[in-house]
């Protein structure tokens, strides 16, 4: 048996879904009363996000206001032990109520049917079911809006983690994979032969193939230090990286500094709310605080780095999910992998970060195209629910 909480607690297991289960299990949902069916659909979505399959629900009382039809339309079969009309009839037969009350309830049911269109509009605000073209119009951060446009135009949700230590190899990889990606994520400080002259050809490749340069710096320090790391030194990240990553650990000072520092006029930040490595100390409370911080800087924060479907009602933000690989489940250190299909359809991923699955391939371009297609097909499957 499993139980769904209304929200994850900051203590205990800190999970939305409690119980003993494994991915692929089938679950029968049990509910007391159903009116619109929307709360059951929310439960189905949360269970699905954990890899649990749901197709049927048993309810004690169907109020006959359109909930069963709405659930059926969304792929869930409802089985009720009792409906309100029968309940009224039984009560009248036992002398508990009179004919006037029965008619009053019947009239009420006919005049208060669930507005399926209104419920569908509510669903349409969920970022998981909106197209990237639609979300581009909602995004408040200019780089997020540009990313959505690139993703829609190139039909790619692939971010390549180019963790290479040789500058020539980095440029060659960018050229080969460029047509298939929406962003190139770097750790520029690991390039052994780095020279400022590397940036110009890297930017030229990005412009020609229409992808975003993304430095995964994970800023986490006092304001002045971050300012220097971001805009000074040999790397001068603020002059070429349209996107950077940062931790929320030391508070909103990190965003204030990135916002005010010299460099590119248009810039964006991905805040780290969850990690793909085993043994992480990041918990639900930290993730919640990170989201709160992101909401205070909508013009600067492009999205959130996480492993689960968060901020569903904020379609202007992008979920970036690392640790994606077709075959492996983990590496020999601490990285945990998920398949492309799972991160998109179950974990809420908008942009998937793939590294060694491409960089270690015999043909980087072929591997990148393979990931691009799998990820894009999964995205189309996800939004199909809202575009029938």
From TrEMBL:
One GO molecular function term of this record is: orotate phosphoribosyltransferase activity
What family is this? Answer: In the N-terminal section; belongs to the purine/pyrimidine phosphoribosyltransferase family. Belongs to the OMP decarboxylase family.
Annotated ranges, domain Orotidine 5'-phosphate decarboxylase = 157-371
Q: Does the keyword 4Fe-4S apply?
A: no
One of its GO biological process terms is: 'de novo' UMP biosynthetic process
Broadest EC class assigned to this enzyme: lyase
Name the SMART domains for this protein: OMPdecase
Its Enzyme Commission number?
4.1.1.23
- Where, by residue number, does the polypeptide cross the bilayer? none
Where substrate is bound, by residue? 163, 185, 276, 335, 355-356
Enumerate the NCBIfam families for this protein. Answer: pyrF
Lineage top rank: taxon? Eukaryota
Q: Which reaction does it catalyse?
A: orotidine 5'-phosphate + H(+) = UMP + CO2
Q: Please name the catalytic residues of this protein.
A: 216 (for ompdecase activity), 218 (for ompdecase activity), 221 (for ompdecase activity)
Write down what this protein is called: Orotidine 5'-phosphate decarboxylase
Q: Which InterPro entries does this one have?
A: Aldolase_TIM (IPR013785), OMPdecase (IPR014732), OMPdecase_AS (IPR018089), OMPdeCOase_dom (IPR001754), PRTase-like (IPR029057), PRTase_dom (IPR000836), RibuloseP-bd_barrel (IPR011060)
Q: Gene3D superfamilies given for it?
A: 3.40.50.2020, Aldolase class I
Give the UniProt keywords, A-Z: Decarboxylase, Lyase, Pyrimidine biosynthesis
**Pathway entry:** Pyrimidine metabolism; UMP biosynthesis via de novo pathway; UMP from orotate: step 2/2
What CDD domains would the database entry show? OMP_decarboxylase_like (cd04725), PRTases_typeI (cd06223)
